[in-house]
From TrEMBL:
The gene is ndk. One of its GO terms (biological process) is CTP biosynthetic process. The lineage of its organism: Bacteria, Pseudomonadati, Pseudomonadota, Betaproteobacteria, Nitrosomonadales. Belongs to the NDK family. The keyword Transit peptide does not apply. It catalyses: a ribonucleoside 5'-diphosphate + ATP = a ribonucleoside 5'-triphosphate + ADP; a 2'-deoxyribonucleoside 5'-diphosphate + ATP = a 2'-deoxyribonucleoside 5'-triphosphate + ADP. This is Nucleoside diphosphate kinase.
Amino acid sequence: AVERTLSIIKPDAVAKNVIGEIYARFEKAGLKVIAARMIHLSRNDAEGFYAVHKTRPFFKDLVDFMITGPVMVTVLEGESAILKNRELMGATDPKKADKGTIRADFAQSIDANAVHGSDAPETAKVEIGYFFPEHQVYSR
Ligand code: CMP
């Protein structure tokens, strides 16, 4: 089925100037950018976005990292977009990510791991809505 997923290019990858290289991987895999903007998240924004992880031991470090610089929030659309994006990203921990994945190629550590992607249809819907009202998502 055609799905939508939320991608975030994290501060480390934006700082490395690889936004275009990451977008090219999405496009080559048949995913379309249907909404996008750059934003420097506030602490409140990052805590709200990652609210599901609030009780996890890594929550503070994750939020601290996500507010170190601007990110690209992007909605991707395509056939099996959620799984496709997760395959392109590779494992959360870049040390475990398969060769040729975004995290293997661009990430440094489990927090500075270049990209975020929604993990399921329900979370994708919530995550997309966190950043984009429906009228700013240009399904095509
Ligand atoms: P992301 O897909 O953005 O979702 C939550 C983030 O928490 C994850 O990527 C990692 O960057 C970060 N994180 C740090 N430690 C862990 C961990 N042990 N397990 C999962 N995510 C972690």
